[in-house]
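Hey forum,

I'm writing up a methods section and want to include a predicted complex as supplementary material. The small molecule is flavin-adenine dinucleotide. I've pasted the protein sequence and the SMILES. Can someone with a working setup run it? I'll credit the forum in the acknowledgements.
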Amino acid sequence: MTVAPEQTAESSTQQPVHTRALIIGTGFSGLGMAIELQRRGVEFVILEKAAEIGGTWRDNTYPGCACDIPSHMYSFSFEPKPDWQHMWSFQPEIFDYLKGVTDKYGLRRYIQFNSHVDRAHWDDDELRWHVFTKDGHEFVAQFVVSGVGGLHIPLIPEFDGLDEYRDAGGAAFHSAQWDHSVDLTGKRVAIIGTGASAIQIVPELVLRDAGVADQDIELAVAFMQRGAEPGDPVGVGQAERHQRGAAAIFADLVVKLLQSSLRARHRHDVRALPRKRPRRGVTDAARGTGDEGDAGGEGFCHGVALFAVVPAKAGTHTP
Ligand SMILES: Cc1cc2nc3c(=O)[nH]c(=O)nc-3n(C[C@H](O)[C@H](O)[C@H](O)COP(=O)(O)OP(=O)(O)OC[C@H]3O[C@@H](n4cnc5c(N)ncnc54)[C@H](O)[C@@H]3O)c2cc1C
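Reply by user p_vandermeer:
Happy to help. Structure tokens for the complex are below, copy them as they are.
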């Protein structure tokens, strides 16, 4: 079995494209699958609805966007990166990492960008999938691997008055669709959600002096102290930063810790496990109170923060 030739993935004819495996999506999942299929010599095509690879790390560009699993773990095991600049890397570095991996493995020639898969069916007689894109292209494959991700379609609740608010000049957007053209300086910013995105955004906005009240600044910044500051060595010593072995040892150590923690947990009744609560400071900063409270969340979840940006009124904030 051979890998699909370059012209297969880039074909723009209306004839069905036949391939052994079809991957949908170019986030961590799709790229990782592609590399493994390539390694095994399986023919494949990748369909990606956007114009660039990256998934989560292409789409999320909000201030402070970062991973919350240490980068030595949140990267491909076969492509360690010993010189991560942060323990929990920021979006640009993760996006660059994914682009680098894509180029290193020559994956772009298999990817058909701007190809939004909107339906697929399995043919019992042919024993093949028929996959269709929105622009009318058909692909026929024995295997379909979905790497469409679970978080890339932002959920924006129906808020009464949202349209009127926008019509009146207010900006409202989801954290996954950050509108960088909106200058938040001096604005009052309402953040909806207290999950992992919100706790990354709040301190960034505070540091940018976007109008968060003084008493909240202390709480938010105190909460957000990460293990490593920009430029600090992360998880490995300065002298070891450029040695692959150190990163591998670190990753191995974390895996062992996780495994032993899981083993320990599974010996207990699940009901006995402590319920996760939003951490102090996140809730406080989001609510604008000094109280610790339960916002109803179970742990953290990305992609739930909606921002509403209202024009500042004189005297309503501390610039
Ligand atoms: C801000 C943020 C931080 C996160 N941090 C962590 C972390 O620290 N650790 C962790 O484990 N997880 C984290 N996550 C979860 C993260 O989404 C996953 O770890 C991982 O990146 C998901 O990769 P994926 O390839 O499965 O999906 P995605 O990255 O969502 O990629 C899906 C791809 O499929 C494409 N696609 C979707 N539908 C179609 C279609 N119909 N046709 C064609 N293409 C399509 C999309 O355009 C996209 O490129 C984080 C998420 C966010 C939003």
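Some notes you might quote in the supplement: The CA atoms of residues 198 and 253 lie 29 Å apart. Residues 1-12, 213-240, 265-301, 303-319 have pLDDT under 50 and may be disordered.
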